[in-house]
Amino acid sequence: MAETHKKILFRYYSDLLEDTVVETMWGEIIDLEKGYFKLDNIPFFGPLIATDDIFFAEFDETEQTFVYRKTIESFGNSILQVVILEKGFDKEIIREKLKAIDCLSEVLNETLFAVEVVKEIDYSLVKTILLEYESTSVIDFAEPCLSEKHRADLLKN
Fold first, then answer.
1. Which of 72, 88, 125, 145 lies deepest, with the highest CB count within 10 Å?
2. Contact 111, 83 (CB under 8 A)
């Protein structure tokens, strides 16, 4: 992966944690000279970037690594954060329901996972699943990076 990808440092404010977060993610090299990469990870804490988005990063002498500077082009994918509130609830139940409609997720720990919703998915289906669990206080969820396409999906219903 090292020849086609670089680890990129992202530093941003997380509404979820109410603090500045540092997260490293893989960027597929688009044009190394220009500093263009395509995000190849599901972010955990909610920068305004989603998988497959093209972004600019530059080598930072202080950090001694590439550092994210800005998103150049969004491709319509969305990133969600899900927090398990009910003690002992198996998060895999929700992850499997989401996977069944082609929404992959990455687990951070026992109570937090991030979900990728690709552009082709009707977001109203995803939101229905999440609202079902939220209504019974099993989870809470956030939509830190909700694409225009997925916003439009909600308006159709």
1. 145
2. yes
Please give the Cα distance from 149 to 141 (Å, whole number).
19
Cα 49 to Cα 2, 22, 60, 80, 127: the distances in Å are: 22, 14, 20, 11, 19
Secondary structure letter of residue 110 according to DSSP: S
The position carrying tokens 């440092």 is 9
**Quick one: which of 41, 39, 16, 48 has its CA closest to 105?**
41
Measured from the Cβ of residue 88, the count of other Cβ atoms closer than 10 Å reads 6
Q: How far apart are CA 37 and CA 32, in angstroms?
A: 8
The residue with tokens 């996977």 is 99
The partner residues of 60 in beta bridges, in order of sequence, read 65
Using CB atoms within 10 Å of the CB of residue 72, give its burial: 0 to 12 exposed, 13 to 18 middle, 19+ buried.
middle
Using CA atoms, how far apart are residues 63 and 127, in angstroms rounded to an integer?
Answer: 38
Q: Which residues of the chain have pLDDT under 70?
A: 1-2, 16, 46, 157
What would the two tokens of residue 15 be? 């509404």
Q: Write down the pTM of the prediction.
A: 0.89
